[in-house]
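Try it yourself: sequence plus 2-acetamido-2-deoxy-beta-D-glucopyranose, in.
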Amino acid sequence: MDSILGLGFLSNLLTSSLLFSSWIPGEHHTACLALKSGLNVENTTIIDVSYVPAGSKVATLGTCAERADVSVSLCRVQFFTNTTTTSVVHGEAWLPDEWYGRFLGLGNGGLGGCIDYGGLDYGSFLNFATIGSNNGHDGWGGAAFLGHPEVLNDFAFRSIHVEAVVGKQIVEAYYGRPHSKSYYMGCSTGGRQGMQAALKFPADFDGILAGAPATDFNHLVHWTNMLAQHVGAPASESSPAFIPSGLWKTVEAEVMRQCDGIDGVLDGVITEPDACDFRPEALLCHPEAALDTCLTRAQVEALRKIYSPLYGPGNQLLYPRFDPGAIYIPGDLFSGDIPQRSKDWLHYAVLNDTEFDFREYGHEHAVLMDEINPGGVAAFDGDLSAFRDRGGKFLTYHGRIDQLIPSGNSKRVYDLISRSLDMPSLDVFYRLFLIPGMGHCLYGPGAAHFGQYERGTNAVNASSHNILLALVDWVEGGAAAAPDTIIGTAEDGATRVHCRYPQRSVWDAVEGRFGCEA
Ligand SMILES: *[C@@H]1O[C@H](CO)[C@@H](O)[C@H](O)[C@H]1NC(C)=O
Ligand SMILES: *[C@@H]1O[C@H](CO)[C@@H](O)[C@H](O)[C@H]1NC(C)=O
Ligand SMILES: *[C@@H]1O[C@H](CO)[C@@H](O)[C@H](O)[C@H]1NC(C)=O
Ligand SMILES: *[C@@H]1O[C@H](CO)[C@@H](O)[C@H](O)[C@H]1NC(C)=O
Ligand SMILES: [Ca+2]
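Structure, out:
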């Protein structure tokens, strides 16, 4: 059994004592279908219950994906919960035959609206009873928020709480006993939801895995809009500052030329982007330069702003800078228009004016977003004392070439919590792993696979290489099992140790690899 989930002493303990080894074939099936009439959860309607054999593809709820993979045999419960008279959360519980007693809630992405089916498959594969929801509305966009403040509340803080409250009851009804420990996993908006859960409902989860959290959400939206504006959005055709996508390749190569070697290795990965003092003027056109590989003064000026932190008029920091090394995403920050998620947020949640013209956008809108803070979405609050005092464990990670949420924000959040709780080191309950060479939540030239998101990546079975399993070890094994490092695996199979902030990742020329230094 422990080869399936190489968790060392903990998994041995749990697999031997808690597995439903006494169930005979077919019994899962019968118990599953019995839930159709046997579930009675407040405000909740069961849509369907079905037993799904390993290796199936199933139709999904909602419009985000057509079909989903099911890797292990499980009981699937689809439901909706009325959170108020004007709002409803749709969700699914995937209850694997082979259950180790653990509960796992899942987050969402962007402004969605989309049940994380990849996460349901991954969680149930790792023997968690796994619950995902649609965040209170369907699809990737934010139109559902307009005129529906309770739908906004589901998105801002409530849907994950519904997963915990409703999901735990479904789990108990099916397996005939309550879960042992509860976990949460999400990235981006899912990271913000994890932070929100720890702040607002500190008893919901014993362990939270929150990737690239979109915390200080309103300022993140403002930063997104200002970066787009630096290159001329939303009317970039007429802007001398616009940088065409082809020229971004030149910029990225120049960033690497200036900063790749700072960490001692020319490997296409900038270990510490904050040590990179990128000078865009190196690309300024001079008479001999080829015009498609050099920049005008206006373009250089735009880059200078992009690679600087965003300050308000009173010189207060609003958001950290774009990480040098982060790679251009077509259709996003620098494509010449305001990204759709930002438009939706302003149109449907903040201004309630679908005609708003982004040529009018400015700092006053940041002030307005701060004032309204729809649903308390910001989740920028360092007081995690209730979560800590319950014994909760929080793991977070952030790719250092994140193109959508700068990794500096996770350092800033660490420092905010540290100040708020008066704890110079948060190691006893909160650990941040910074991942060199990883983009937003996953992928990149670095060692970007460490079990953070989905199946199908290398080395998912060992807690040394899998941050979700590392969280389980920490919650269930206590301080001695806290993760000091996480080993990531790159596309080519090479591995690298990732360090917890504020430790630094340092090249060891003797060993020929990176290690961590306090
Ligand atoms: C949920 O709301 C719908 C629509 O308002 C209503 O028909 C249904 O009875 C409610 N269900 C529960 C379980 O409260
Ligand atoms: C059930 O719905 C009522 C009324 O809409 C609400 O006040 C209550 O909090 C809901 N309970 C749960 C568990 O969501
Ligand atoms: C827009 O609507 C939301 C609720 O859906 C509300 O919180 C916000 O204050 C409204 N914005 C303005 C500018 O009135
Ligand atoms: C992980 O476990 C699965 C299922 O037991 C197995 O197929 C796979 O080979 C294992 N992977 C590793 C890296 O051990
Ligand atoms: Ca390097």
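One thing you can check immediately is this: The chain has three domains: 34-176, 180-215+379-518, 219-375.
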